[in-house]
Amino acid sequence: MVDSPFIQKIRDINAIIEKDATDTTYKYALLRGLAEICQKYNHFKEEEKGRIFFPTGLLVERWLFYYYPIIANTEFIPQKGGEKPLEFNKNNISFRKYFTKITRYYEDKGGFSVFYNNYKKANIPDEVQADLKVLARSILSTIKQYPMRHLGYSLNHTEYSIIKPEKGKPITKEITPRYLIESCGRFSIDSELYEVFRLFGAYFSGRQSVVNKWAEFTANADKKKPLKIELAYKILNEIPSTEREVQEARHFYEALLIKRGSLECVWSGKSITKSDELEIDHVLPFSIWLNNDLWNLLPTHKSVNYKKLNRIPSEAILLRRKETIQDYWKILEAEYPERFKNEVLISLIGKVENDPFSKILEICQFLVNYQGYQEWNVN
Fold this sequence. Notes:
The protein is of the alpha+beta class.
């Protein structure tokens, strides 16, 4: 029986993970980034002649977040066979020395979480902007020249056979999420591969996943000083602490509560009249979507939030509460105009003409129907 194109792409990915030669972790970082982008940044997708295009800047951003905990770790974590600490200045991954300048700047300022929040808010300090530009250029060049070029060579014996990059603009301005997306050009993959990543990308966290293979490589990169695979896996799965963002939203809604005398629970319509009744809910649960943008943080009654937990709002409840959700968005946009618009554009709609509420519906349906997450309705 001949496999369908879809099934063949699954086989190809398995073969790439197992057979493509690699002396660095770049291949794993690229595949991990592709899976996340196809799942979480579908609003940037463009389709032309059977190929799916995304901004390459999204990959640069993913690599900033993947490699920061590795570079910043107090114990040297090799990412290349035989790689030695930077002081030896020998056989390092291409962007380690540039990345080290960033991590050293932030090491006494809150580390990864502060860098993450500065970047997401387009608020990287002036004294480190020049170094971040150099780092972004180096990461972009590395992605195009190494893993993009060689991915799939074991199958097709040609360069750029899986991913085809397009030329972008030189990186010259201050680094922000929006600027990276607009300046780094695009890359494309075929539509069947896109569907595989879109539907099965979540399974990349399994035993034979890209992340696990990355951890195994990292643990064994230095034969003289082996690293425990548990530590490597923990580092690779570290996420920034963003509790401060939730507290910021809470302070905003507490002030609004004092001003108005009451707030409406976004899900139930219950009246919130006291601060101890107020909870901040992630429309898309943080544990699933890793998003603390303002549009995703809305006020709910404590009793309702306790029942929702990490479940996904149903289409019925979203449509029923659409007006309240949009009212809160208008309030947030009035208070934080630039921040709110940029967060919605980058992490929700992709283009200004797209409708944010429709995108929320689309994401929730995808998480329930294709990823198998539990749907939630207010009783």
